Amino acid sequence: xxxxxxxxxxxxxxxxxxxxxxxxxxxxxxxxxxxxxxxxxxxxxxxxxxxxxxxxxxxxxxxxxxxxxxxxxxxxxxxxxxxxxxxxxxxxxxxxxxxxxxxxxxxxxxxxxxxxxxxxxxxxxxxxxxxxxxxxxxxxxxxxxxxxxxxxxxxxxxxxxxxxxxxxxxxxxxxxxxxxxxxxxxxxxxxxxxxxxxxxxxxxxxxxxxxxxxxxxxxxxxxxxxxxxxxxxxxxxxxxxxxxxxxxxxxxxxxxxxxxxxxxxxxxxxxx
Length: 272
Fold this sequence. Notes:
The protein is 50% helix and 14% strand. By secondary structure, it is an alpha/beta fold. Strands 3-2-1-4-5-6-7-8 form an 8-stranded mixed sheet, with helices on both faces.
């Protein structure tokens, strides 16, 4: 049960914000204590707000008990949005960011050096409750605020904590951007199937089900990925033949090393 003492202010009710909002409401959050600020939320989120009685775009000046502000807007509009919600800092809320590329210092600059700020990197499987979110905090965050953040983020998946904010760039490269790599793997698997004679629709159906099922097997079993791989690899069999290519010195690992390094470097550039 998610119990709020004050008001939860969701700034940005798009896909990520909407998914989190749905998770909070399912976890028992009182809709009367939730406020959404978004000039144009998606139709499905707007319908959810109306159905649950969540206030949409009230006057910020009228919110005098903000307990937590969740910032879920795109990084490119952040500097336009933050000044509009700065009046909420009088309540000493926790500022929880789920926006990529914006450092803790960004929020301290707007809300003050004494503001309690947590920077997080979620990923898109949060939309189906299967996300994973990493968070880093500044020294002003209290144990109670940290627990509140963990509870809020747990509504859409797993939560991990990193001790140093600089690790967020690496997290972004692995899990933040990671779903795109898995989707592309699915595309590649289907395309390869087509090239050896499968009809396109069947190749994609096989690829999607294989990737999704393998992920669910990892999640439910808790078995190490390497062990699961070994379990389906018979000596000198078909899987073994494929893995000789994928695990070669010029196979998947060096490609992933370069890709993850590029993503981490770009994350650092965006945050500078």
